[in-house]
Amino acid sequence: MSLISKRIGLAALAVSGLVPAALAAPMPPKPPSAPAIRHVSHDFGTPVVDDYRWMEKPGSKRLATFMREQNAYTRKVLDAIPGKQALYEQIKQDANVGAAVFWVTRTAGKIFYMGLEPGQDTAHLFVLDKIGAKPRLLIDPMRFSTNHIPQALNFYFVSPNGKYVAFGVSGGGSEQAKLRVLDVATGKLLPIGITRVDGDNTDFPPVSWLPDSKGFIYYRLHKFGAGAPVTDFYQKSRDYLHLLSANDPTGARDKPVFGYGVARSAPMTLAQDALVMTVPNSKYALGVFTENEELQSVDAIYAAKVADLERGAPAWRKVAGRAAAITGFALHGATLDIISAHHAPRYKVIRYDVTAPGAPKTVVAPGRDVITSLAAGKDGLYVGAMRDGMGRIMRVGYRSGKTTKVKMPFQGGLGQIIADPQAPGVWFHLAGWTTPPAWYDFSPATGKVANTGLQKPPKVSFAGIESKEVKAVSWDGTMIPVSIIMKKGTRLDGRNPTLLIGYGSYGITITPYFDPTSLAWLDRGGILAVAHVRGGGWYGQAWHKAGQKQWKINTVFDFIAAGQYLVDHHYTSPAHLAGEGGSAGGITIGGAVAWRPDLFAAAIDSHGDTNALRMQFSPNGPPNEIEFGNVLKRRDFHWIYAMDAMAHIRTGVKYPAILAITGANDPRVEPWEVAKFAARMQAASTSGRPVLLRVSYQSGHGIGSTKDQYVRSLADQDAFLFWQLGVAGFQPDFGAGTPPKRMVVQPSHNQGHSAKTGT
């Protein structure tokens, strides 16, 4: 599981004035500090001080007490910020200006999609007989809730005949789903409930139906024993065949057909995950070995006949291996198209015949565009790409081999592209920083693109908002793309509250997206900026590799460079600049405040990997070796030490204000990582600025959180930042009769260089 989280925003309010610096009135009585118990290890000759190592002990009551007390204190502080409740109401309003439509599937003439309607708190599964018809609700995940614990639909997969939906629901942000099957016509559940099924509808699809719809193959984690090391949790996965005719509700008698220790012809390592994938128009199934549950990091692809798979006796034959540098693929009949980085830093598309494995032929040669996705339609292969973050689509005819470009409705971020192997054309999702999202339909017969109307435009206007694309110079001269979103006519006087967001891992790109909830920030004069740092995928594989492993520190320095650009060009100043990173972006924001504490007034660490040296010893540590390395190896240790924020926090430094956020059920970044970072910052900083720990006890990594959970968290974050960045109307008075003292922010030295963790 990669480490990933993403900020989305809300609301519209009047602009508040600014005060020169944040005011620090006396705070409520602080809870006890975390005990600092001396711990020094000497790793490959490097002394590593970790006085909060005790927090990692499983089931630590001391840690639980620390987190409860810190969270209670954080609630008192945040709830005392003037304007926060009004901010929450505005964000809540803008979170409901329109419907979200995602994970669209076209099967058997029907349209299935996940939808989050205005007023709904969790995304539901709907089905349409055709565009314009009334949607029918299939699954409300809250029907599976007990004690009002939030539930989320992790994945759904429709049988080729459109009669059944296999789906998984998990509670409290745990992402640990139970696989069930629904009869589409009746809405009734079949007697199936299989546990330990992990994945989603994007990077790691855990279920694949047999072409005849008589059953499916599913990915399942191994049964984790009580005495097993926690690092074994995501290892030894297998894929099992389940037939609907079998009287086996829990899958206890299901036979493994691919994965760890299953087939000698397809050996699997502990570092890999295994998937089996089928498509309706092919007699072949694919067996896929990935790393870190990512289809963008594929080690090998095997093929077997579906008929043999149905009998439970597939004969797997290797089609492509690690040398192909696979980051995506699509199957059509016996044709396997692969996105390859081999001698192609921005990728190319190569084609294999699964019936006669051999040297592939190039279908789309490498060029200026970064190839991102593939979709196999009945008529041709559709290739998703981007240039400078803006989406593009090409069509490659199966018979002619001719490549044509799809005319995009506007310049924006390309989301999911979907093709029905039994129908011509392609659907795609497109959105811009200031342009609402929509689903579009390309017809190869007419060559035209039309809005499907599947997603209605939200009732909100961004007419007063503009976006800019600029580039900042990083420490080594590399130009770092930065997207800036702000109100039209904003004065560049260095006084604008500005939030810089960065990630930078797994080759993931933050492409343009439309976010009504950001209006709460923008309408108060705030500026949003996104740093497209190395480690992401803005310029393809080479950009990713330049921020990975031994080059990971580039991610931190690129982020700092983007912040320095915003200061140097008078968008903001250090007194009004904040940074945010989540998940793997904890490396980015943690490193940025450690290296350049003078550049930021505040920072948000959201479920962040701020203790990379210890990530290895958590359940999600081994799966992330491909991205960060193995701390137990001498060579890897030194670059992981460099990217570890905890290792670079120094006592006696004036650090920015910190809001550290975690979920008690986070399966990707252990809550103790965030708690350790907060405790160390509280002990080390002499700035007088607050270091707060916010804990959600009914969520995890943010995946599967309800809309209200998101809205409340965003209101807390924005209110905290407005307070610390000096926005009038957000300055609390904690002590009656006690004059507040002014915070002094260190001036920028104009010399800094600029650093996500995937789950």
What does this structure look like?
By secondary structure, the protein is an alpha+beta fold. It is built from twelve helices and 40 strands. The longest helix is centred in the first third of the chain and has 19 residues, at 61-79. Residues 1-24 form the signal peptide. Residues 738-759 are annotated as: Disordered. Keywords: Hydrolase, Protease, Serine protease, Signal. It holds the Pfam family Peptidase_S9.
In short:
By secondary structure, this protein is an alpha+beta fold. It is 16% helix and 31% strand. Strand 34, helix 4 (519-522) and strand 35 (527-531) form a beta-alpha-beta unit.
Structure annotation, total helices: 12
Number of strands: 40
Derived from helix and strand composition plus strand pairing, the structural class reads alpha+beta
> Major sheet: size, sense and barrel closure?
8 strands, mixed
What integer value in Å does the Rg equal?
25 Å
Relative strand content:
25-35%
> What's the CATH H-level homologous superfamily of the domain at 23-93 and 461-742?
Alpha/Beta hydrolase fold, catalytic domain
What secondary-structure arrangement, pairings included, does this model have?
Blueprint: E1 23-24, E2 40-43, E3 46-49, H1 61-79, H2 84-94, E4 100-107, E5 110-116, E6 124-128, E7 136-139, E8 151-158, E9 164-171, E10 177-183, E11 194-197, E12 207-209, E13 215-220, E14 238-243, E15 255-259, E16 272-277, E17 284-291, E18 294-305, H3 306-310, E19 317-320, E20 326-332, E21 335-340, E22 348-353, E23 361-364, E24 370-376, E25 380-387, E26 390-397, E27 403-406, E28 413-418, E29 426-431, E30 438-443, E31 448-451, E32 465-473, E33 479-487, E34 498-502, H4 519-522, E35 527-531, H5 541-545, H6 553-568, E36 577-582, H7 585-595, E37 602-606, H8 612-615, H9 625-628, H10 634-643, E38 657-663, H11 671-684, E39 691-696, H12 707-724, E40 741-742
Helix pairs in contact: 2-12, 6-7
